[in-house]
Amino acid sequence: MQVSVCIINRNAGDALLRCLRSIEQHGASVQHEAIVVDNASSDGSADRAERALGLAHIVRNSDNYGFAAAANQAARLASGQVLLMLRPECEIMPGALNHLWRFLHERPWIGACGPQVLDVGKRPVLCCRRFPSLWTTVYEALGAAPFFPDTGLVGKTPITGPKAQASAVDWISGPALAIHRRAWDMVGPLDESFWLYAAELDWLKRLRRTRLECWYVPEALVVHHRDWSRPNPDPVGLLWFRWSLWRYFAKHHGSGYAAAARLLTALGEVPRVLGWTLASALPAFRERSALLADLHLRLLTQSVTGAQPPPPEGLL
Asked: Per-residue DSSP letters for 118-147?
């Protein structure tokens, strides 16, 4: 078996079926299998996919065990030389599996790689990043991301688009990551304490220590159909993202480094809480400003306490 596509499903709806159909349609040039680990979905998405296709190996968990634990389940069942960790909201484009397979198979010094991710309008999504640091924490705390989204100095590497070339990167943040089995066995499984976010970030940091590399492969294309049904902004997702990043800092840089990151984050939240609270006094902006004031107060409180958020309903 050349490629095992590992999909973690949690109430993905018809997106799961679309994802599996794209694998079936565009994976003929590669010997592959699809493994779906369903984290106790209540929408019947796994059942519909099984009835419609019947080709995927579907594992049903009795509870939502989180992304990392379910991904490790899939990896244990996989027989492919390459593991493609794929979100169910993704659609594989023609040739993508073959590009990823050949790229890893022909380059033994590379342990993992990621495709070019497109949004539903087929526009490239920035997904290649440098490892996060206190500098990136300051950048985000200052709210500079909307004004300097592509600068490589603050954690993002601007190599997307039609002129992009295959390049070594620190890590791929996005919905698809291909890992060679030899690298998986060398590094070990995903750390299951990263329940929702940063499991791939942590794994690629550990990969770096083995001297194997992570590369971006823009010839391989994947369309990410984002879940627009979640509220914007998503407070639970933001709480989990922040907590996971601090855990990453503590694991790889020490508790003092993580505490400094939390302090910088808290300092960035204070003016946001004050600003949106004042704005909520204006009738024209009251509803949204009150919502944002509450969100940033929750983020400020979490930055001070470092508390782990409760398991989120509806998220992987």
From this structure: E-TTS-B---EEPPP-HHHHHHHHTT-TTT
What's the rounded Cα separation, in Å, for the pair 239 and 87? 21
Could you tell me which residues come within 8 angstroms of residue 198 by beta carbon, excluding any fewer than 6 positions away? 241, 244, 245, 247, 248
Least Cα distance to 197 among 227, 167, 166, 239 occurs for 239
- Integer Cα distance of 115 and 220 in angstroms: 5
Here the tokens at position 261 are 């990151």
Q: What are phi and psi of 8, to 5 degrees?
A: -105, 120
Whether the CB-CB separation of 19 and 88 falls below 8 Å is answered with yes
Rounded Cα–Cα distance for residues 147 and 165 (Å) = 25
Kind and range of the H or E run holding 214? strand 213-224
- As a whole number of angstroms, the distance between CA 197 and CA 30 comes to 30
Q: Which residue do the tokens 């309903």 mark?
A: 313
Q: What is the pTM of this model?
A: 0.89
Tokens of 27: 């994976």
What CA–CA distance (Å, rounded) separates 151 from 155? 8
Helices (H), 154-285: 181-187, 199-209, 235-253, 255-279
pLDDT in tens, 212-258: 999 999 999 999 987 544 445 577 888 988 999 999 999 999 999 99
32-39 and 57-61 strand pairing? parallel
d(CA 200, CA 13) in angstroms, rounded, equals 24
> Are the C-beta atoms of residues 6 and 75 closer than 8 Å to each other?
yes
In tens, the pLDDT along 70-108 reads: 999 999 999 999 999 999 999 999 999 999 999 999 999
Question: Which residues fall within 8 angstroms of residue 252, CB to CB, at 6 or more apart?
Answer: 202, 205
